[in-house]
Amino acid sequence: MMNKKGLLIVVSAPSGCGKDTVISKVLEKLGNEASLSISMTTRAMRPGEAEGVNYYYVSVDQFKKHIENGDMLEYASYGSNFYGTPIKPVKDMLEQGKTVFLIIEVEGGGNVKKIFPEAKKIFIVPPSMEELENRLRGRGTDSEEAIVKRMEIAKTELERAIEYDYVVENDVLDEAVSDVMSIIRAGQLEIKYMQNKIREVMTNA
Ligand code: 5GP
What we know:
The chain is built from nine helices and nine strands. By secondary structure, it is an alpha/beta fold. It has a domain of 135 residues: 3-Layer(aba) Sandwich (Rossmann fold). It has a five-stranded parallel sheet, sandwiched between helices. Helix 1 crosses helix 8. The chain is globular, with a radius of gyration of 18 Å. The protein starts with 7 loop residues before the first strand and ends with a helix. The structure holds guanosine-5'-monophosphate. The site of guanosine-5'-monophosphate has 14 residues, from strand 5, strand 6 and helix 4.
């Protein structure tokens, strides 16, 4: 059996579910053990964002070149922009034994297991559609029209939750964080990641 290294975790959620907050807390807890994959996008940089921190910002032509060159683990168009995961850093981080997080939308999320069948997919849901709508309104960043559109997208995304391995409800933040931590721990303890441990125990026997 191949000696597996790090764990690959795909996280998706309708916008407004707080997935970034949940995962940043998880990353804080895992420290050096984990890394977040930085995606490439053709969308414009938002205020407060930085190159190589939130995304790598590229032109549509550059993005297409990367697809042609086979640089992408997955990609999708979302809104009117492209988003994709560069494969090299993910492979390197897994090789180092790290738990790697991809926070991506459902379309691209559907393609990850074609390349990494052992990836674990987590879908984060809001407590209810009503609560999701309240949160979107509470952010105060979207127009009424944009909120209606986001709610429609959220419904189509929720329909694809069935493609995921786990569902975590984000009602109380700390509980969602601890649920994700349990999934990670269970994943790390799977036999395919524990071959070295078994060998070590046997040598010392
Ligand atoms: P935003 O423009 O708000 O940063 O992201 C829009 C959506 O694109 C979010 O659902 C986000 O998770 C998703 N996304 C970000 N990076 C990637 C990626 O590399 N691949 C895919 N498929 N989706 C991504």
